[in-house]
Please model this.
Amino acid sequence: MRSMGRNETAHAPADDVSGDTEEFDPIGTLTLIGIYFVILVLAWVYIYYIEFLGRDLVVVG
Amino acid sequence: MHIHAYEKLWLAASVLLILLLLGSVTYGAVGPGVAMVSDSEPAIDAGGLDEDERFSEPRVEQVGENEYEAYVVAFQFGFQPDPIVVPEDSTVTFYVTSRDVIHGFEVAGTNANTMVVPGEVAEITVETDGAAEYGIVCNEYCGAGHHGMEGKLEVVSQSEFDDRTSGGDGE
Amino acid sequence: MSEAIEGDRTFADKFPEEARIVRAALLGSFLALTLGAIFGIIQTLHRTGIFRGLIDSTDYYTSLTAHGVFLALSFTTFFLVGLFTWAVVRSLDRPLLNTKITWTWYGLMAAGMTMTGISILAGFTDAIDMSADVLFTFYAPLQAHPMFYAGLAVFIVGSWIAGADWFRTWLAWKREHPDERIPLQTFMVLTTMAMWYIASSAVAASVLIFLLPWSLGLIDQVNPTLTRTLFWFFGHPVVYFWLMPAYLLWYTVLPKIAGGRLFSDPLARVVFVLFLLLSTPVGIHHQYLDPGIAEGFKFISMTNTMFLLLPSLLTAFTVVASVEYGARRRGGSGLLGWLTDLPWRDPAFTGMMLAGLMFAAGGFSGMVNAGMNINYMIHNTIWVPGHFHLTVGTAVALTFMAATYWIWPQITNKPIYSRAIGLFQVVLWFIGMALMSNAMHAQGIMGVPRRTAEPEYSGFDYPTMFGGFEELNVQIAIGGTLLFVSTVLFIGNLVLTMGNPKVSGLAETLPPALSGPDDSPKVLDNLRLWVGIALTLVVLAYALPLAAIINRGGLLGPGVGTYPVWLSPALDALANAAASVLGAVGDASASLVEVVR
Model:
């Protein structure tokens, strides 16, 4: 679809905006970003609780 | 303002993630008791360390039962004392300052790590486990010889510690 | 409609003078990239011990200073001023008010960076008594030649005039279009520059009040913690200054290349407002392990930093959704099957997507950096450069290179010499950085320090964790070499492009957002309000720490010496003489501080 020959403008044309918004559910995006979320949480738990707190010479004061 | 339901979901997850991060750091502070280098020590005259009671003679000193203090001076390009010798299963507080530029004091591979700023004294307390040898590196660029600036931390048994301190090698 | 349909006319056709400025800025940026890449390959081979024959280890720090200043300041900022000029003129669809002013700021920035660059490069030769081996962060009391600081000041003043130029152009547009929303790209430019004014004021003050007079011998000492804190007041928001042009491209150009449109204009505005508000009151997170700063200030800084994750996390969603929309319109289907319906052969698209992917990884190491006490594990280790080579070194740099393949034809009317080489180049960057950055993170956890010519020590060996030290060194060297080759391909492709004949039909347009600006609250465009809140947050985050630091060490430091890395003995004596005369000024002001205290 290369036919959208309009600029990003101060006033977006009303005709195709509202319709599209309701139609499009970015389920693929939600899936991808959900995977990212799980990776972040697991990686954080590993690096904070296992790698960091498990090291020698923890600074306690 | 129109925000898609999925995006609201993601926003909520993001806030949850941020709370997890803040919660972990707080847990580290109150659970295992990890404390930050802070402003606990008053400022010091970096040019006058020779007259300072603690830093004119960098050393390890026993201050209580199983409690030791290490007064460490960082300079271009080394640490004093070197090596730093402390006994195992003890509580050691490092007081580290610089007599010239900004340095780093990092016991490589451990969590003992602090900036060393002239005019300030960094105070960090650690608990040692069994006997071990660690390298100390300066991890802040401090001049042309920076890469050669290293020291040693030796955690030794109580008997060896007593031998070495009474043996008169300066510690 | 504020703008006419662009039709077949490119930016160069419509705004030839502005296109010339954009070209000049981008070329300045690519010159800096070339120099930075040369130092990069020297360092990657030297540090890892693969080849140490080209420079002495003592000169490594001259190289490292050049690498940091040319890439982090020059490459990024020159690209930014070019891109922002393009974005303002394009989205307002009007020329700049007065291009004499435009050429003035360009000239100042170029002159300033040349001064700073010369003072750094002179460090390679003993023939001139000049050097600036103080690295990108120039922490006192290491002292550079005065020209290093003077050049930085001129460079920053140039960037301030650039911002004023864009603000004036916007105000002129506003008079012509009183009731319209600020076009999105211009909105992004203005919020970024507002953030830049706030952030750079601190480093300008540090340079002009303390470091430059001190390097000239007018005052004989400075407070290292104070100048360091003022640096980081600037040093964290500057990373968003690098990142915002990349965000502008991800929000406004990437969806178009993917065949889609921006998912949400209002959220894009919210994100930029959040960056304006939160970028600056976080700098103390670079000083978590500094003595002389209370733990409470560090905790406040961490909280702000963590909330600064929000705009980036929101961006991830909005940008990916915009791309997904493009893929669906191209016939993509399935939960993830649409990923195969994207223009992966387009170097601009693939480059930006890979840059975004790396930014997601960099987000994780950034969270670790931001976590106050976990900083003990990685502070000043090579983990940190591992992190920012993912962010500024890929999210920003790779996006800029990818965007060049899209934008360059429109500002020159010349098609890219080889899009195939372009595609190969961006993928090569990704692979090279994946290797280099991964190994740097792993070495960092082992405790290997950053910023050192020879990270191996005589007295101890590093523990083996994710592969041994040596093995990771090889990974770093291979990655760094691939990055260098990628840069050479990029520059070569661009040089050959310049030899192409001019053609017509290269015009590109940008589609409006799915959810347009009319859907966003008007208050988002109230820049005065946001700047006011941003300033308030900065005062809340910094007033007490700065007061405490000055109270502890004095404005001019607690008896800290001066360690010039540039004076010969003869000059040294001269400077000492001058310092003793003029030092009286310093003493007087120091005693004044005593009295006030």
